[in-house]
């Protein structure tokens, strides 16, 4: 086990729901991992496995994508990008043991080597993150490399930073000089605010990509050729069979909502299961936020609650993007 972070303390931040986020924060993302595909057939192989258009992915860009089973249910949501001689992708550690063998299943017929990486994953966030990355990496694209690290842009205020265990402390110490240190829960909060999809073991093979809004964050190409699960994904778009979407909900909670937790919804004077939590964050003032997959035809005044705390009413919030699907 790597001990690179022994000299640094990455702990949960004590944030109330009214507190501003740190101008610059460095998070240790132990619950994220990297996989590489190296070899001349890697592009073609991934093109036949993922929802995104791998062929059109530019060298300096990244994209969200899903890897589905034959029924169109997601094994993972990943962030895919080019690395030297191939591709890398970042996904949740909790699905590594099940997703990688499925991705490898037909690779015996292709010249591509699919390997889980031991690289350390960090997250740099905040309004000063872009300037800090610009100062450390001389390249100007959304995927940047130097001799010891790779940085992958998520949005205007966030970057993944990936390095080998032997260089991780050097990189962390560099950014720690100006940044607040945090564990991965701060990254979860950013993902909730951005309504970015993810799949953990508790939600693996539960949802099709559109149920987590993947089409709204450019994670699905409806113009590429065949890939595993494409029939279901296309039918959800063109025949309107998808009845779910992912939403931000907020409310009072005694504990942080966890992936797979059930959220109940109001139906008249009764309550029924409403949806499944994708990820959650709890503030110090007992307020909390979560991403939840819910029916996409609910009334605007629908209320929500968790069975363990029925007196606390939750509400749906606005998404930072539109769910209109015209791609």
From TrEMBL:
Annotated residues that bind folate are located at 32, 187
Q: Just give the chief location class.
A: cytoplasm
Tell me which residues make up the tRNA-modifying protein YgfZ-like beta-barrel domain. Answer: 242-307
Keywords for this entry?
Cytoplasm, Folate-binding, tRNA processing
Localization recorded for this chain is: Cytoplasm
Which family does this protein fall into?
A: Belongs to the tRNA-modifying YgfZ family.
Protein function: Folate-binding protein involved in regulating the level of ATP-DnaA and in the modification of some tRNAs. It is probably a key factor in regulatory networks that act via tRNA modification, such as initiation of chromosomal replication.
Matches recorded under PANTHER family: TRANSFERASE CAF17, MITOCHONDRIAL-RELATED
Q: What is this protein called?
A: tRNA-modifying protein YgfZ
